[in-house]
Design a protein that fits this description.
With 64 residues, the chain is α+β, with helices and mostly antiparallel strands. The protein has two helices and three strands.
Length: 64
């Protein structure tokens, strides 16, 4: 029988993936949202997926 991973395990893996994709950013979660912080820049979104999408746009804009 296959056992599904726990929600905590999945969330930890997603945080590790986000940290690898966006080195230098710190990710935090509260009851209603996620925040990414780097130096004096902070972005907050309702989900980690939305926050990562925003950081991808931010990264692409900085490269121009």
């Amino acid at each position: 029988m296959t056992r599904a991973p726990s929600a905590d395990f999945v969330m930890e893996r997603l945080l590790e993936e986000a940290a690898r994709e966006f080195p230098g950013w710190a990710f935090e979660r509260n009851q209603s949202s996620w925040t990414a912080a780097r130096d004096d820049v902070r972005y907050t979104r309702p989900s980690l997926a939305a926050l990562r999408a925003l950081l991808r746009v931010h990264r692409a804009a900085r490269r121009r």
